[in-house]
Amino acid sequence: MDPDDRPCWEDAGSVCSWVYDRTGGNEALASLSDWLLDRPLRILVIVLVATLLVHFVRRWVERSVRRMVNPDRDAAADRLRRFGVTPPSSLVTDIRDPRRETRASVIATVMSGSLAVLIWTVAIISVAGVAGLELGPLIAGAGIAGVAVGFGAQSLVKDWIAGLFVLLEDHYGIGDVVDLGEVSGAVEHFSLRATTLRSLDGTVWHVPNGTVTRAGNLSQLWSVALLDVDVAYNSDLEAVQMLLHRTADEVCRTEEFAADVIESPEVLGVEQLGTDSVTLRLKVKVVPGRQWALQRALRLAIKQALDRAGVEIPFPQRTVWMRVEPDQDDSTDDGRDDESRHR
Question: Which domains, ranges and CATH numbers included, belong to the chain?
Fold first, then answer.
């Protein structure tokens, strides 16, 4: 005999068996108590356990993720002091990074939500079993439906998995300027499904995370203002490099950019010997996102400084020689030859 088909009063410790014993074997009252008291109580216990478990799992996941993504600075500083090492100011000072806070919050939400779905799925199956439903066909039907949905939603699952790894590995976050291959811009919204970018011309791009094969973050931790300056071949390159460094240093010391510059300007030297000019490269390390404004200011200041110093910024030039036919008159040839040379 199947254990699930036996009468409820044969289950020791149940309300049904207690009523059956107290009523002298009244099967009708025992069955009624099973449906009115025993099964509702067990369902209530399952729901309460699932609710408490979800609550504790959410708290545990949130604490674990925040400890991993945004570690406790005080604890780290205490460990360093125990070994006789003076902790750096970044640990002693209570600095809250909004980017880390947002990333930790999103990861904790995703992980706790996934675990909550798993817990409630098990709870619903348990409730169905207590209510007397046949779990075999139910689970088999759910499995078939899951396979069908999996085949039909492959791209969606791919997007979710890719978005989860973007979060875990911190490829980019809201506010970052990124290059995702075909499009680039500032990240305005991010979800496991897609990334929303706003390009420089104001266009809003919605990029599915599963289609991103590479991501270039232009504003993470620090950025570089990089300038290539072309000068003529007859220029004094050492003097020009000194002029570039002095001009860049003056721009970086202005009130507009003084707080954005991380390291002093550096002239890297000759970058290229081109057809018409010599290319010198200038580099300035700045805070994320400020490289473009600094580059525009540097271009203006360098152009004005080179003009004052009389340094030529060359443009493409060509010398054209016109061949003169030998059977033409000498005087005519000389005139055309002089004209061709002047061209």
Answer: 3-152 (no CATH), 171-217 (2.30.30.60), 223-309 (3.30.70.100)
Grouping H, G, I as helix, E, B as strand and the rest as coil, residue 208 is strand
Q: What sign results for the dihedral spanned by CA atoms 134, 136, 139, 145? A: negative
Q: What residues contact 48, with CB distance under 8 A and at least 6 apart?
A: none
Mean pLDDT of 2-22: 57
Q: Helix H segments across the chain?
A: 15-22, 27-33, 39-69, 73-82, 89-92, 98-130, 135-152, 154-169, 237-252, 291-309, 330-342
- The pair phi, psi for residue 61, each rounded to 5°, is -65, -45
Distance CA 88, CA 266 (A): 27
Q: How far apart are CA 67 and CA 55, in angstroms?
A: 19
Question: Which bin fits 336, alpha (ψ -120 to 50), beta or left (φ > 0)?
Answer: alpha
Of 327, 326, 329, 323, give the one whose Cα is nearest residue 341: 323
Is pLDDT above 50 for 149? Answer: yes
Say if CB 280 and CB 235 are below 8 A apart. no
d(CA 336, CA 326): 12
Higher pLDDT pick, 341 / 67:
67
* Position 81 confidence tier, pLDDT thresholds 50, 70, 90: low
Local confidence band at 155 (pLDDT 50, 70, 90 cut-offs):
confident
Q: What is the chain's Cα-based Rg? A: 37
**pLDDT of res. 95:** 47
DSSP assignment, residue 24?
Answer: T
More confident call, 159 vs 9: 159
Q: Which amino acid is at 335?
A: G
CA 219 – CA 289 distance, rounded (Å)? 5
